[in-house]
Design brief:
257 residues; 42% helix; 7-stranded mixed sheet; two-stranded antiparallel sheet; alpha/beta
Length: 257
């Protein structure tokens, strides 16, 4: 590959669109897992790694609960607060949550554990602040090490993005580790699974612009724009033929505190 000029990074509005798309992917499993102990009106629910508030806004709307969100990134919290007023947004490190024991009925995270230094510590903190009998939920954690791209040479961009994420500090095998981590943290009634991955020919033709924006952000400093345009054309062609496969196993897990 040819080294490219630096690519402008996505801004918060761009990332929010991406997070909204991801929240749609996990909507069905979210309702299933929250159904284990559906929060009552006014109950406190914690999101660890709230980001721009894409998931939290939907949770609060679905359950009329009191949503509290923490994130290490202050600019993301400000964005979430401006978008989503009913939520209490607090800057904090997930490894040391600033809440007393048993403060929440449910604690959850969404594409977060793959980015933290010590996921067991984070899960232990989520368990500590969750009431006995409540649930801790990891709604989605990807396993990029098992990514499938087809047909060739589209697998090359998958490899480049996975390498980029690993270079940024992500655990590219976090998905497959979820069950082990929940057992190690001491949860009971653990359920682990993979988000549904079935699709039809029409859906496979749909282009997710946020996916390409994220891809461009991840590997734009590695390949020149002309090569990205080439891959985009190959991707479009494969989708129109109904043969495009882009599958990143995404795991979920829930455990009783």
């Amino acid at each position: 590959m040819t080294v490219a000029e630096p690519t402008p990074s996505m801004n918060l509005e761009d990332w929010h669109k991406r997070y909204l798309r991801q929240s749609q992917w996990t909507q069905d499993i979210r309702r299933h897992l929250f159904g284990k102990r559906e929060p009552k009106s006014g109950e406190r629910v914690l999101e660890v790694g709230i980001g721009t508030g894409a998931v939290a806004s939907q949770v609060a709307l679905d359950y009329q609960c009191r949503l509290v969100g923490i994130d290490i990134a202050f600019d993301s919290l400000c964005f979430a607060r401006s978008l989503f007023h009913p939520c209490d947004c607090i800057q904090a490190d997930a490894h040391l949550l600033p809440f007393p024991d048993s403060a929440f009925s449910i604690s959850y995270c969404h594409y977060v554990l793959m980015w933290v230094r010590h996921p067991v510590t984070v899960l232990a903190e989520m368990r500590r602040v969750t009431q006995s009998g409540g649930y801790v939920i990891a709604l989605a954690e990807s396993d990029y090490a098992a990514r499938i791209d087809f047909p060739p040479p589209l697998d090359e961009i998958g490899k480049l993005q996975t390498q980029s994420l690993e270079g940024q500090g992500a655990d590219i095998q976090m998905g497959r580790k979820l069950g082990h981590l929940f057992h190690e943290t001491g949860f009971s009634e653990i359920e682990v699974g993979i988000l549904g991955s079935q699709w039809c020919a029409r859906i496979s033709q749909d282009i997710d612009e946020t996916e390409w924006d994220a891809l461009h952000s991840d590997i734009g400093n590695t390949v020149i724009n002309e090569e990205l345009v080439k891959y985009r054309k190959l991707d479009d062609h494969a989708r129109k033929k109904g043969e495009r496969v882009l599958f990143i196993p995404t795991f979920y897990a829930v455990g009783k505190a």
